[in-house]
Amino acid sequence: MQATRSTCPYCGVGCGVVIESRGAQITGVRGDPDHPANFGRLCTKGQTLHLTAAAHLQPQLRALQPMRRAARDQPLLPVAWDVALDEVAQRFAQIAEESGPDALGLYLSGQLLTEDYYVFNKLAKGLLGTNNVDTNSRLCMSSAVAGYKQSLGADAPPNCYEDLDHAATVFITGSNMAWAHPVLFRRLEDARRANPAQRWIVADPRRTETAALADLHLQLLPGTDVVLYHALLHVMLWEGLTDPAFIAAHTTGFEALRDRVREFSPAVAAKTCGLKAEDIVQAARWIAGVQADGPRAPTLSLWCQGLNQSSSGTDKNSALINLHLATGQIGRPGAGPFSLTGQPNAMGGREVGGLANLLSAHRDLANPAHREEVAAFWGVQVVPAVRGKSAVQMFEAAAEGEIRALWIACTNPAQSLPNQAVVRRALQRAEFVVLQEAYTTTATAGYADLLLPASTWGEKEGTVTNSERRISRVRAAVPAPGQARADWAIAADVAQRLEKLRPPARWPGWQGETLFPYRSAEDVWNEHRESTRGRDLDITGLSYAQLEAAPQQWPLREGETTGAARLYADGVFPTPDGRARFVAPAWRNVAEPRDARYPVALNTGRLRDQWHGASRTGTLGRLFAHSPEPVLELHPQELARRRWLPGKLVRVASRRGALVLPVAPSEAVAPAQAFIAMHWGGEWLSGGGVNTLTSDSVCPTSHQPELKHAAVRLEPAALPWQMAGGAWWPAEQAWARREALRAVFAAIEAAGGYAHCVPFGREFDPAEAEALATAPAEAGLRWRAALPATAEPALLQAVAAALGLDPAQGPLLQYADPRLGQTRRLALRPDGTLRAYLLAGDTAADAWVLPLLLGREPAAAYGRALLAARAVPPDMLAQRAPRSPQVCACFDVSEARIVQAAAQADGTPAQRLQAVQQALHCGTRCGSCLPAVKGLLQRTPCAPPQAASAPQETLA
C-alpha cells in the first residue's frame, strides 16, 4: 500500500488529501492532517474520491484512447495519438490561415492545474495569435475578480482562513457555505463554538442550511443585493459608525458614494429588498463593529456565486467591499472582504492569465506595456491587442459561424453554460470540436469530432491555488489509465506541431528551438514562477521543493521564507496612488424582469453531495441519496395555492426554453419563487437540463452571466401516461445500462414527454469487501418518464430491456393490458428480493415498490399486488412507512432515525447532539450533515419519559 499526499479536485477550499493506492489502483482516501486548509477534514465528496477512481468505472466512463468521428452522425472510433494531434494542429492552422486566428476558440476549466492553464494560455495568445481563450471560471469568479480590481487594485483576496477564528461578525452573502464549502464551514462552526459571541448574518433569498444557523437571516429578493449594501452604509453614516480616519488616509471616491447611498434609507431598502427595516439597521451595527469601549470588533464578509453569477455582479462585489473600506475592516485579523472561490483552481487560472482579458501574472491585456512584457518573456514578437471573447460570447460567435473551431478542455459547456439552445447550436455548427476530457459520458462528448483522453485526479502532477492564495501540490498516486495523458503535455505537443506549420514571429534574440520545451509539469511551473517577478503575486521565492514540504501563500518573493497571510495591513493598495477606491454603482434592477407571463423568480444552486455537472460525483449512487431525483422546489404555501401535490409534473418555462420536472415542497424557498439544483443537466434528465432556462445576460464589466436567476412561469404538464422503474446491476454494468436509458431521452422528447434516469445505492469501500464477499457491490438506476399518450411498444421495450426486464434475461412476473396502456414487469432474485421493476400506465404502486427495491427486502409475497392494476391494498403494507430522506451520507442515517434519537435525548443542545451522535454516528466523519442534524434537534422536543417514542422507520 502506497500513500501519496495531494489536493482535493472539488471546491476552492483546497483540502489536502492522502491517496492510498495499491499498484495501479487507487484504493482509499483520507484527509491530510498536516494541510493547513482542512487539517484532515473532508466533506462527503472528498471522502468518496477513491470510489470515483474505482477500477470497474474506468472502462465504463473514462476516455482511454483518442477517438475520432468521421462524420457528425457517426460514432467516435479509436485513432492513434499522433494522428489525433496532427489533425488538431492541421485543422487549427488551416482555419487560422483561411479566416484568421480569431476564428478559433479555446474554452478551459477551473479544474485544470496551473501548469495546464499556463501552456494553453501561451498556446493561444503567444502562438496561435488569438485571445479567444476563456474558462468556466468566467461563470464562477470573474465578478469577484473585477470587484477586487476595481476597488482594491488587484485580483487578490486579502484574507486567510485563520480570519474565521478571529471574526466577531461574519457576513455570509450569496453563499450556501454549509453545502458549497463544507470543510470551511466546519471551521466556522468551530470558531463560534470557541467564541459563542460570534454573530452570523446571512443574506440569501432562500433559507438554506447556512441561513437557518444564522443569528440574522436577511431573506432579500433576488437581485437586490446592491440596495441592501447601500442601505447598510446609509445606516453606518447616519449613526456615525464609519471610520473617517481610514477613509481619509487610505481611500478615494467616498464623497460620490456618500451621495449615492443617501437615498437608500432602511425604509426604502426594506420595501425594495422585501426585508424588515429594523433587520437592516441591526445588520449595519454588527458589521460596523463599533464598541462602546475598545477597538472596532472585526467583521469578515464571505461570498460566492450569489453575488458573482449576476448581470450586475461587479456592482454587487464593489458595493460589498465599500462596507469594509468605510469601516476600516480590512488588513487585520478577522476582518476583510473574502471571496470564496468556487473551483479548485480558478485562482491559479487567473494567475497565469487564463481569461480572455488577462495575461500572465495578473497582467492586463489592454495594457500595451503588459503585452510587450509577456511577448518578450514568451519569445514571440507580439501578443494580440484585441480582447478575446469571453465564454458566453465565444459560443454565441460559434453559433453564428464566426468561430469555426472549438477546443474544450476539462469542462462540460453542453451542461454548464446558460441558454443551452445557443450553446448546442454552437457545438453543432462549429466545423471542428476538440474535447479534451477524462470522461466519455458528459453531454459535450456527444458533440466532439475528436476526443483526447486526459488524466485526472490521482494521476496528475502540478499545482493549484485555493481561496486564501495558498498554492498546494497535486501529485500522481497511480499512472493514468489507457492512453490518457496530462493536459499540459497534450497542449504542448499540439503547440510544437503548430510551430512547424505556422512558424511564430520570434522576439529579437530568441535562441530556443521551441516555445514549448517542457519535459515535466515542474518545467512549466518554473516558467510561470519567473513570469511573476515583481508582480503582486510574486512567487519567485518559492520552489517545487518547498511545496513538497508544505503549501504556501502568495506573495512569496525571492529571499522570503513564508507567504503573506493577509494583504493591505499597511493600508497601501496596488493602485497608482496606493489608495483603495470607493465605487458608487447605481442600482439597476437588471435581474430578468418578472411579469404576468413569467411571474416566478427561479433560483439555482448546489446540492450538498454533488459537484458541478456531476461527471465525477454522479458516478456514485450513494451521493444521490440526499437528493435522489431532480425536482422543482416550491414553498408549501405555493403548492397549496396551486392545488399541486408533491410529485406532480410541472412545465417550467423561461424566455429561452422549457423543462418538465416534478414539484417538491421546501420551506427554504420563499413564495412566488422556485429552486432547481444546478447539477441537473442532459446527462440526467430530458429537455437539456436546468440551463435550458437560465439567462445568458452578462455583467458588462466582468462578462459573468446571470446563472442564478431567471423569470419563469409554471403550469401543469399534461402527461397522463407515466413510467416508473428501477433496477440493481453489478457495478461494472450499471453505466452501460444508464447509457441505454439515456438513448431513449430523444424519443421521449420528440413525443413531447419527460424522463430522468438517476443512480442510487451504495458503492462499498474496499475495506468492506471481505464482509461483503457474499453480496457483491451493486449500483442502482432509477427511471421516471411521462408521455401525453401510451408509449409505442418499441419504446416501452427499450426501457424494459435497459432495466434488465427482458424475458431473455431471466424469469419475470408480467402483466399487460394494451387497451388500457398498462404494463407491469417484476424481476426477482433467487432469494425473493426485487432486482428490477417497471410500472407503465398507472404508477401508483411505485410508492411501495421502490422502497422494496431500495431496501432489498423480500418481495415475492407482493407479486400479485404488483400485477394488479392498482396500488397495493392497505392491509398488505399497513405497518410500512415511506422511506425517510437521508441526512448523513457517510453512515446512511435517515431523518426519521435522527428524530427518534433526538426525542430521547435530554440536556443542553450540545449534550443532545452528543447523544444522537453516539447513537447514530451522524456528523462524526465529514460533518457535512451537521447543520441538518442541528436543525432537526431544534425542531424536535425531548419526549417526556412516559411518552411513546416516535414511529420507527421500517424502510431505512
From TrEMBL:
Cofactor names from the entry are: [4Fe-4S] cluster; Mo-bis(molybdopterin guanine dinucleotide)
* Annotated Gene3D superfamilies: 2.40.40.20, 3.40.50.740, ADC-like domains, BFD-like [2Fe-2S]-binding domain, Dimethylsulfoxide Reductase, domain 2
Give GO terms: molecular function aspect only: 4 iron, 4 sulfur cluster binding; metal ion binding; molybdopterin cofactor binding; oxidoreductase activity
4Fe-4S Mo/W bis-MGD-type domain sequence ranges: 1-57
Q: Per the record, GO CC terms?
A: membrane; oxidoreductase complex
Q: Tell me which Pfam families the record gives.
A: Fer2_BFD (PF04324), Molybdop_Fe4S4 (PF04879), Molybdopterin (PF00384), Molydop_binding (PF01568)
Q: Does the keyword section mention Manganese?
A: no
Q: Which GO terms describe its biological process?
A: cellular respiration; nitrate assimilation
- Could you tell me the keywords of this UniProt record? 4Fe-4S, Iron, Iron-sulfur, Metal-binding, Molybdenum, Nitrate assimilation, Oxidoreductase
The record's similarity note reads: Belongs to the prokaryotic molybdopterin-containing oxidoreductase family. NasA/NapA/NarB subfamily.
Q: Which PANTHER family match?
A: NADPH-FE(3+) OXIDOREDUCTASE SUBUNIT ALPHA, RESPIRATORY NITRATE REDUCTASE
Put simply, this protein is called Nitrate reductase
Organism whose genome encodes this protein: Rubrivivax rivuli
